[in-house]
Amino acid sequence: MGITVKNKEVILAVTIALAIIVAVLSLPDILEPMAKSIVNSMGPYWLIAVLIVGIIHGLKPDEHTWPITVSYGLMQRSIMGVMLSTMVFTGALTLVWTLMSALVGQLMSLLNINALKPYVDVIVGVTMVSVAAYLVFGNHEEHEGVKTADFKLIWIHGLAAAFGGDFIIVLVLTTALVPAMPINLSFLVGFMFGFGSWVSQALIVLLVYKGVMRGVRDWGIMARAGRLALGILGVFMISLGFFSMFYG
How confident is the model at residue 116 (pLDDT cuts 50, 70, 90)? Predict the structure, then answer.
C-alpha cells in the first residue's frame, strides 16, 4: 500500500520540524561573544561589523528565525512569495531592533531582557500554533484549495519574535558602540543587524524551498507540510519557553 498524500504531508512536516529543532538545540549560543569579537576587531568600521553580525545571525539556526521563516516560506506559491514572506517577518524584527537600539539607554535601565526571553518563547510559540490553526480553519485567501499565510499575521509574528534572545545581541552591540558613534545614529545598529539577518535568512529559506520543491514536486503538499511544521515548531517553542522558566 503506497503512501497517501496526507501521509506525505505529515512525514515532510515532521522531517522539516525535527531537522530545525535539532539544528536549534545542537548549536551553542556563540553569537554574543562572536559579536563582541567582530565589533572590537573592526574598530571604526562598526557599521560593517554590525552588518556582518546580522548576516551570521540569519545563517545561525535560532528558535526565532529558521522555525518561522522556513515554515512560512514553504507555504508560498512562488519564489517572490518566499522572498516577501521572509522580508515581512524580518522587516518586523528590524523595526523593533531599530527602535530599541535608538532607545537603548532608557531601555537598559528599565528592563531585564534575559528574564523576558522565556516568556517571549511562549508568546511566539502560541502565535505559531494559532497561525497554523487559523490556516486550517480560517476563512481567508486560498490558492487551488491550499491556504496560504496572511502577511499581516507574519508581520505581527515578527514583532513578537523580535524580543527574543537575539534582541540581547542588539542591546549588547548598541551599548558597546555608543561611545564610538554620534548618538543620533544609534538606530543604525538595529537596522543593519536586521538587514544582514534578512539577507542570509532569505538565502536559507530560498534554498530550503527549492530543495523541498525539487523533492516533492507538488506545491500543495509542500504548503500543507509547511503549515503543519509551523504548528509542531510552535509547540517546541512553548515547551522551550516553559523549560527555561523552570530550569533555566
Answer: low
Instruction: State mean pLDDT over 172-198.
Output: 85
Query: pTM, whole model, 2 decimals?
Result: 0.79
Alpha-carbon dihedral 24, 101, 150, 65, rounded to 10 degrees: -10
Contact 205, 73 (CB under 8 A): yes
User: If 0-12 CB within 10 Å is exposed, 13-18 middle and 19+ buried, where does residue 191 land?
Assistant: buried
C-alpha span between 98 and 148 (Å, rounded): 29
3-class DSSP assignment, residue 147: strand
Q: Which set of grid coordinates corresponds to residue 104?
A: 537603548
* CA atoms in the 13 A half-sphere facing the CB of 120: 20
How many Å apart are CA 60 and CA 42, to the nearest integer? 21
Whether 74 contacts 218, CB under 8 Å: no
Other CB atoms closer than 10 Å to residue 137's CB: what's the count?
8
Among residues 96, 134, 112, which one has the least CA distance to residue 234? Answer: 134
Kindly report the average pLDDT of the chain as a whole number.
80
d(CA 89, CA 93): 7
Q: How far is CA 235 from the centre of its chain?
A: 15
Tell me how far apart the alpha carbons of residues 137 and 189 are, in angstroms, rounded to a whole number. Answer: 40
- The residue with cell 553580525 is 53
Would you call 173 exposed, middle or buried from its count of C-beta atoms within 10 A (0-12, 13-18, 19+)? Answer: buried
SS3 for 146? strand
